[in-house]
# Entry
Amino acid sequence: MIQDPLPRDMPPEEFRRAGHEVIDWIADYLSDPRRFGVLPGAEPGQLTDLLPPTAPEHGEPVERILEDFRKLILPHSTLWNHPLFFAYFSVSSSGPGILAETLSAALNMNGMLWKSSPAVTELEQVTLGWLREWLRLPESFFGIIHDTASLSTFHAILAARAFADPDMRERGSSPGFVLYTSGHSHSSVEKGALALGIGQRYVRKIPSDEAFRMRPEALAEAIAADRAAGLRPFCAVATVGTTSTTSVDPVPAIADICEKEDIWLHVDAAYGGHAAILPEYEHYLEGASRAHSLVINPHKWLFTPIDLSAFYIRYPEALRQALSLVPEYLRTPDDPRMVNYMDYGVALGRRFRALKLWFVMRYFGRDGIAALIRNHIRMARELARLIEADSRFELCAPAPMSLVCFRLRGPDEATRVLLEKLNQTGEVFFSHTALHGRFVMRWSIGNIHTTWEDIVRTWSLVQALAASA
Ligand code: PLP
# Structure
């Protein structure tokens, strides 16, 4: 016999109390994130040593869990949602996005089928339709939300190969399909090809010009050489906003080649695509409407909490034909108005990510988002001028968006030491890349709280530490 009282969920009053405490903590954090250091300076294993090796046998009060969040978790965290986070691509969570994530967790819906929660499916279609319009992409682009650009690009390559080799579903993959991308594309492109069994030897890294943009004539030559060798070129990936420098590949010229050669064109606009929301940077997505697929990550530059990647595909049927499997327990009536997203990807379960995008797009509006992005780009321009004016430093790449690549003149060691010293302060966080074989610092501006004063103060810190580097 089942005995009552069973341990059930947290009582509503306790939830309300703790919930208010959590929201208060978040509001305090967001009102003054600078009182926390961005980098924890933790040693590997340090947090693990502070935590019990086994899970609790008996439940604990939520107050104690919250206290340990503050005392243990926070001091070991790198704060990505911090105005002085300048590493990788600086990203933002935002008030409306945080609220939506909370609601999504409360409802705990799974949008594998339209029927499993109509709101999850339909809001995904609506918000991605809105974003598509902001980016001036064609209505024929079908939108799907994934967790990351890596997964979006994986599905692009998967669709491209299914398009080129429709029998693959039945027979399995065959060798000799060749993928083209630039040496500056994100590693997720090559990783997608690896995961799909394309084979590393069939991934061509096309050389770039002096501004780190793929050279279309080199792409055409590589395709011709592969055709002559009896191989099967099937997919090219161009990048709008490369990871190292935010360079923009010449998508229109690449699209010309792909059309002529009948090759799938995927555009990775994970970061840089957002700039095209601004009328003055519309040209960054020039030619993208001729692509077969495109990825853009609102969790990178659209003030949406990690994770949300928007994937657009012109021929969603390619995915359906490659992947759709409907066991009896997931069968629903055939109705073209009911999109079942499980048919278009590897994952069955899909969480309600569209809710946060909907909150963010509605709260800020296109003009609010454009103003925030415009300000980031303007700060990067001004920062590049400051760096240029100090003869000890050199800029290492054009800065078309909100990323500035720079180094100390002379041997790499000085820049390496400077980067280490900056990060050791814990107050700021920078990352690096290599350009033309030189060690280069990346200064990425993208957090919603970053101000021009933050940039100026940090630049003074960089200058001061450079004097002793
Ligand atoms: N594409 C580009 C251009 C990127 O810069 C990144 C990451 O920074 C990715 C793809 C991978 O993104 P994700 O972490 O969403 O897989």
The CA atoms of residues 136 and 234 lie 26 Å apart. The longest strand covers residues 232-239.
